User: Fold this.
Amino acid sequence: MTGLPPAASPPPALADRAAELADAALTGDRRALARLLTAVENRTPLAEAALRRLYPQAGRAHVVGITGPPGAGKSTLVAALIAEVRASGRPVAVIAVDPSSPITGGALLGDRVRMQSYAGDRDVFIRSMASRGHAGGLASTSGAAAAVLDAAGFDLILVETVGTGQSEVEVAAAADTTVVLEAPEMGDEVQAIKAGLLEVADLVVVNKGDRPGAQRTAAQLRAMLVAAAPRSARGEGSDARPRPKRPEVLVTTASTGAGVPELLAALDRYRLAAPDGPAPAARLARAEAQVWAILGDRLRDRLHEPARRAATAETVAAVADHQLDPYAAADRLLQVLGGRRSDG
Amino acid sequence: MVHNPPMLDRPIKVLIAKPGLDGHDRGAKVLARGLRDEGFEVVYTGLRQTPEMVVTAALQEDVDVVGLSILSGAHMTLLPKITRLLREAGLDDVLVTAGGIIPDDDVPALRDAGVSAVFGPGTTIAQVAEFLRANVRARDGV
Assistant:
């Protein structure tokens, strides 16, 4: 890492407290783990100090994103997956994200309702997160939370997004393997060939497989996503143009567990296909997404510091009054931070 | 989307659970929704929770408050058991409140057992929210 300035160190007292919590979490203290996750969610200096210690321990877990429209059965499927994973004796952690109110900041986190049967089992750790204003299906801190659970030894982490629509593809950057859940009869073949969420799926799961139309929906998805997916003339992936994935399409009935062993087997195949973790390109994409997100947060935080708050508010107000266009406003705010446009 | 600056006043996190066997969860749901509207982050776990389920959820979610709704009459058994298990799990800084049908005569014993407040019928959401804000544990850098 030559050429990079060293990272600033946190104050000693904070570093000690962070180290204490991090070491306790690493040795199996679930309360310390839960406290650390709170610190991560609150984006406190303590969390950053702890992550500095924990991040080098992470990178081993298989992070599986589970997304799909509200009511498709994500939480029920996660509960069924927990049961299946525990039957094989492996530990599993869940991050379940639900939306925060854009009005009050409050949130109703209801995903645990279907996952409460594992109270005595210390190898199951379920954490609800509010999205806290972050669009895209996750919370801005979901990735850091997954890293903490990863470091704590959970080698399978299920990340359940908020109920999504067509384009909340962020989960694909946060997860090693992305499962997109569909309910039967939710759309026709044209829905299946629209760009967006379905393109980033490694696995498409038609849940509620006991409902009429489930098999037909699965057949339509297979036809449009798998059979009709373009192939490169020189073989897949050999040219530079990025291609959508060609997902497997499975049918589950999460409420009875039907199809869930097959889903877990498929997830494990994805993990085995990349025994050293995700491919370098995917790893780099994830790192990039995380760093850009944090950089954006840092910029905003600095613009809201007391010394700059007034200038920031004034600039934004000028845009609201149409006295300044938003691009010029962004440039002006960069100047407020001491930055300069590279092209003058 | 609205930007949230670092949370100096981060939302208070509340677990709403119904321990025991009664099947009436309308009140708990109304409270959960009301607290959401008051700006709280509410983890709702639903009906028929054992004390162990409540404590596990409180620990993993790192909640500030555990709110227990109970209408079955089993409060003198279930609530002290939950507060005891919370203490044993190291969660003695978590505020525990109860609501539902709980006779006044039982309230002092529940207080002694660690239930900070008992909200009977007629309590408004605003009263609950105000009590929680005033009595929740202090932040400690986390």
In short: Chain B has one domain: 13-135.
